[in-house]
Amino acid sequence: MEQYMQQELTDKIIEQAAILYDADPTTITKIGGFENFVYEYHKNKQDYILRFVHSGHRTYDLVLAEIEFIDYLDHHDARVSTVVHSIHDKIAEKITINSEHYFTVSVFEKARGDLVKNEDLTAEFYQMFGREVGKLHRLTKTFNPKHKRPQWYEENFSDIANKYLQYDSEIIDLYQQVEATIKSLPKSIDNYGLIHTDLHFGNMFYDGEKLTFFDFDDSAYKHFLSDIAIIIFYHFRGLDNRHEKYNEKVRFILHNVMKGYQLENMLDLEFFKHLNEFLLLRSVILYVVMTAAGFDQHENPRYREVHAYRREASINNWVAVDLDYVLEGL
């Protein structure tokens, strides 16, 4: 999130949200958030997630569209967090900051389980993971929303890059090239639709048997392959194609994910020849978002190191895989 948004979430705003959802403000604690502000509270033996979205990040209507999608998935047996209604029976509430800005507030039942651990990452886990993603993609084909989420390229990352990286034409040009390439790919109901777009392990909990997905803040109309590329990309943060085991590990993940995925949805395997474009797109976008969030000026040197690495990984395309090897036998 941009830094000014952090300054506008005051105790008064949090207290207003507590009233709207009949929550005890003394039980509300901050638990994180990168693009939004995420809190937790306890009520009637149940844990809940309280989320604040700044209007500078998403409009009220866009948040409504996100939550409408989650609610639809939940009612069709997808593994997502259940939406909680406010005291006004709304799935989202608007809290005014000033004449220009506001927060959109929403609440979800906290997902069962905990973050995925390294020891969980077996072939069976990835097959289960793939099947749940396949279910999301199957269900999106029949979703008819009242409120509309954006096309992925309407996020205007190019504008954000120009604002924060006007000195770095190499990154700006790279983003525009990759964006243009992916925009030109064919689209149909069988390969393109409303998807999560951010399926890294920070956006799901695992209870030992099943995953539950949350944080659909970045959901957009995009190629289904993007969700699969994200699974691969975030498994290898800090590990890239300079490592001798990189392609072997990508192959293991992809083959098991698709073994489960195809039990729920079919995706033309010919489309996987574009996997590297989607991996590179995420790498560049992540660098742009990190820059907007001030990683390059963070007091913690680790943040600055990660930021610098992400630029090098993007410019040098360290995320690319050996497609012949990785896709063989898929």
UniProtKB/TrEMBL annotation:
Q: Which UniProt keywords apply?
A: Transferase
Q: Does the keyword Transferase apply?
A: yes
The Aminoglycoside phosphotransferase domain sits at 32-236
Taxonomic superkingdom:
Bacteria
List the GO molecular function terms.
homoserine kinase activity
One example of a Gene Ontology biological process annotation: threonine biosynthetic process
Q: Does the keyword Transferase apply?
A: yes
What InterPro entries does UniProt report for this protein, alphabetically? Aminoglycoside_PTrfase (IPR002575), Kinase-like_dom_sf (IPR011009), Pseudomonas-type_ThrB (IPR050249)
**Record-stated family:** Belongs to the pseudomonas-type ThrB family.
Please give the name of this protein.
Answer: Phosphotransferase
